[in-house]
């Protein structure tokens, strides 16, 4: 029985059977957990940087002060978007059931 669309490495989408749909949802949830763990790790590192900066300077870091951590801030931002993408994909899969 065909249920809906899911990602496929070859052409972007493939039809999902009910069995594949269940596996796909499990993979989405696993990816969501991993992405949230990455986000927490990055957030903790950024907060530590900001707290250390505050202890040294007596003020919160401004944008130009964060240049040393630009890669981490960018990765944190992209991780937030990945979480949204996974949640949207999960929602789309559930809607097709």
Automatic annotation (TrEMBL):
<comment type="similarity">
    <text>Belongs to the FAM13 family.</text>
</comment>
<dbReference type="Pfam" id="PF26116">
    <property type="entry name" value="FAM13A"/>
</dbReference>
<dbReference type="InterPro" id="IPR059029">
    <property type="entry name" value="FAM13A_dom"/>
</dbReference>
<dbReference type="InterPro" id="IPR039102">
    <property type="entry name" value="FAM13"/>
</dbReference>
<protein>
    <recommendedName>
        <fullName>FAM13A-like domain-containing protein</fullName>
    </recommendedName>
</protein>
<feature type="domain" description="FAM13A-like">
    <location>
        <begin position="28"/>
        <end position="91"/>
    </location>
</feature>
